[in-house]
Design goal:
Structural class: alpha/beta
Distance between the termini: 53 Å
Strand content: 5-15%
Order of helices and strands: HHHEHEHEHEHHEHHHHHHHHH
Strand order of the largest sheet: 2-1-3-4-5
Oligomer: single chain
Helix content: 55-70%
Number of strands: 5
Number of helices: 17
Largest sheet: 5 strands, mixed
C-alpha cells in the first residue's frame, strides 16, 4: 500500500477552511476592512505636532498694543483663545479644572514698554499635567514662533508637573487603560461561554429579567475591578512615586461609572459573539481605538473635529481627564462633573443596548 505523502489531504483542508471563513462574515470583516479603517483613524488621531491648545487670556493692560499681540498669538495656530477671564486666579481655576491648558497674562505696562522699544512683560502659565502640550507651549514662547516671542518678555510658569516628568503624565492615563482592558475582558466571555457550554437555555427558563441578567453579571466584576483600582493606586504611589494630589474618595466615586461602562462593553461583545474566539477578536478591536483616541497617547486637541467627536463615545476618554485632573492637578469633584456625567450616561446606554442585543440574539 502506497504511503500517504507529507501534504496528503492538504487541498481538502484548505477548501474546508475557506468555506468556513466565507460563512464567518464577522471574521472576514475584521480581517479585511478593519486594518484599513484603523490606519485611517489612527493616522489622523496620532499627531505629535501639537496645535490648537485651548488658551485663556487675561489682558491687564487693555491697550491697542496688547490686542495686536494677542491677534498675532492666535494667528500662530498653536494656541486657540477660548476664554478671557477677568483675573489670573480665575484663569488658574480653569487650568485646574482642565478647561484650558495655557494662560497668557498681558501684564500692566505692556504698551508703555513696547512703545519705548523694550520687550513687553507677558506671563505664561502652562498645564504640566499633559507633558506634550506643556513642551509644545513652552517651545512656542521660548524658541518657537516669532509671532509669540517678538517684542515680548515671556515669564513662563509650568504648573503641576514643572519638570515634565514622564511618569507623572503617563501613570494616571495608564490606569485608565489597564482598568478598561481588565474590565472589558472580564465580561466579554460571560454570555458567549454560556452559549458554548449550552447553559444559556437553562438560565433563560428562570424568571430572571434580561436587564437583571445583564446587571447581575456586571456587579461581581465591578467589585473586583474596584479592588484592582486600589492595587494600581498603591503601585503608582510606591513604585512610580505618583501619589494622588486630589481626593481619593472623589477618584473612587468617579471610577465606578467608568468600570461599569467598561464591563458593559464587554457584555455587549459577549452578546454579539458566537464563539469565545470571536469575542477575543472584538475585544482587541475595541481596546485599540479606545486607547489611542482617549488622549492617553496624543492630545485630543490635535484630532480633526469628526474624530474628536467620535472619541467622546469611548469611556476611557473621559476617565483619562478624571485621573489626570485628580491625581496630577488636584482637581475637585465639582471641576470634573462633565466627564463624570458623560461616563454615567455611557454606562446606562451600554447596559440598555446589551440587554436589547441579548434579546435579539435569543430570537
Amino acid at each position: 500500500m502506497k504511503k500517504p505523502g507529507a501534504f496528503y489531504g492538504l487541498k481538502s483542508i484548505v477548501v474546508k477552511e475557506w468555506m468556513h471563513l466565507k460563512r464567518d462574515r464577522t471574521t472576514l470583516v475584521i480581517a479585511l476592512l478593519m486594518p484599513m479603517l484603523q490606519l485611517t483613524i489612527f493616522g489622523y488621531a496620532i499627531d505629535f505636532d501639537v496645535r490648537h491648545i485651548p488658551t485663556a487670556v487675561v489682558d491687564l493692560d487693555r491697550s491697542r498694543e496688547s490686542r495686536t499681540y494677542l491677534s498675532k498669538l492666535a494667528a500662530t495656530g498653536y494656541l486657540d483663545i477660548v476664554s478671557r477671564p477677568n483675573s489670573a486666579d480665575q484663569a488658574a481655576d480653569m487650568v485646574r479644572a482642565g478647561d484650558v491648558k495655557v494662560v497668557v497674562t498681558i501684564l500692566s505696562g505692556f504698551s508703555r514698554e513696547t512703545l519705548a522699544g523694550r520687550p513687553g512683560p507677558v506671563g505664561v502659565m502652562v498645564d504640566g499635567s499633559d507633558s506634550q502640550v506643556a513642551i509644545r507651549a513652552r517651545s512656542a514662547f521660548m524658541s518657537g514662533s516669532p509671532a509669540a516671542t517678538s517684542g515680548v518678555d515671556p515669564r513662563l510658569t509650568v504648573l503641576y508637573n514643572p519638570t515634565s516628568r514622564t511618569a507623572t503624565f503617563m501613570i494616571p492615563g495608564l490606569m485608565a487603560v489597564i482598568l478598561q482592558m481588565v474590565s472589558v475582558t472580564l465580561t466579554a466571555f460571560s454570555i458567549v461561554r454560556e452559549k458554548e457550554n449550552g447553559t444559556l437555555e437553562q438560565l433563560m427558563v428562570t424568571p430572571v429579567s434580561r436587564l437583571g441578567l445583564m446587571v447581575g453579571k456586571i456587579l461581581p466584576y465591578l467589585g473586583l475591578a474596584m479592588v484592582e483600582l486600589g492595587v494600581v493606586l498603591v503601585a503608582a504611589n510606591i513604585v512610580f512615586d505618583v501619589p494622588s494630589k486630589g481626593s481619593l474618595i472623589a477618584l473612587t466615586v468617579m471610577t465606578l461609572p467608568f468600570v461599569f461602562a467598561s464591563l458593559a462593553i464587554g457584555l455587549l461583545i459577549s452578546t454579539v459573539s458566537k464563539t469565545q474566539a470571536q469575542a477575543l477578536q472584538l475585544v482587541q478591536l475595541t481596546l485599540l481605538p479606545s486607547i489611542l483616541l482617549s488622549g492617553y497617547v496624543a492630545p485630543r486637541d490635535t484630532m480633526p473635529g469628526w474624530l474628536y467627536f467620535v472619541s467622546a463615545f469611548f469611556p476611557a476618554t473621559h476617565y483619562v481627564q478624571i485621573t489626570r485632573g485628580i491625581m496630577v492637578r488636584g482637581a475637585y469633584f465639582m471641576d470634573l462633573l462633565t466627564p463624570f456625567f458623560a461616563l454615567i450616561l455611557l454606562a446606562m446606554v451600554l447596559v440598555l443596548i446589551s440587554a436589547r442585543q441579548f434579546r435579539k440574539s435569543l430570537n
